[in-house]
């Protein structure tokens, strides 16, 4: 069983619990009072030499265990805001990443940047919940969904105002994302079977992106040379978690600010 399959198994239990909280009904009752989402798409489009930064608020991960022992999401977000981030990615999965919905809500309140909910979405109930907790964008992982779910969830997200980062690992997944009409596609450089990381995954796929789609490189970026390679490959943005915490080199990179 792959690690992704293990996570998705647990998500099915969580979705069963979530159903009892009736997120769709709560959304319908409150939809006229909820603020519009911040512009995730607009903040990611690269218009100059420098890349856009999606800074991930990440405490722990399956591949690394606990990364940040004195974790304070607001302090972390403050540092990344100061570096010039264009958006935050906040992990909300509790079991595998020690994330929390509370972290997302707090970061959204304290900083005027769009926030991506980083979780494993396998059901529309999680999409309604994402809108209710203040996410401006969600992640949809092609490897976790079938093609019709991907299309339906993209449509639902658009209907309720959420942007979507569609994550792929290889050429067939990229084609699935493109056919489903994804506007933002992220290549995850981390192989979710053995956790190995290679920037070549993103660089090799970039020429196959459809015209006009916002291109994001995710995972494993640790040095200024990594950023240079991704920038030269014409990505719009990078999504970085661990590297921002452990690598001072990344603090000297100039990002395109929103
Ligand atoms: O990070 C992991 O170990 C991981 C394991 C299994 C599924 C997903 C995983 N990561 C999710 C992510 O997408 C990363 O947190 C994100 O791309 C940032 O990665 P990094 O910059 O390498 O911390």
From TrEMBL:
Name used for this protein in its record: Indole-3-glycerol phosphate synthase
Organism: Chlorobium limicola
Residue ranges that the Swiss-Prot or TrEMBL entry lists as coiled coil: none
Enzyme class label: lyase
Pathway annotation: Amino-acid biosynthesis; L-tryptophan biosynthesis; L-tryptophan from chorismate: step 4/5
Family: Belongs to the TrpC family.
EC number: 4.1.1.48
Domain of life assignment: Bacteria
NCBIfam families linked: PRK00278.2-4
Catalytic activity: 1-(2-carboxyphenylamino)-1-deoxy-D-ribulose 5-phosphate + H(+) = (1S,2R)-1-C-(indol-3-yl)glycerol 3-phosphate + CO2 + H2O
Keyword terms: Amino-acid biosynthesis, Aromatic amino acid biosynthesis, Decarboxylase, Lyase, Tryptophan biosynthesis
Gene, per the UniProt record: trpC
Domain Indole-3-glycerol phosphate synthase positions: 4-252
GO MF annotations in UniProt: indole-3-glycerol-phosphate synthase activity; phosphoribosylanthranilate isomerase activity
GO biological process: L-tryptophan biosynthetic process
InterPro entries on file: Aldolase_TIM, Indole-3-glycerol_P_synth, Indole-3-glycerol_P_synth_dom, Indole-3-GlycerolPSynthase_CS, RibuloseP-bd_barrel
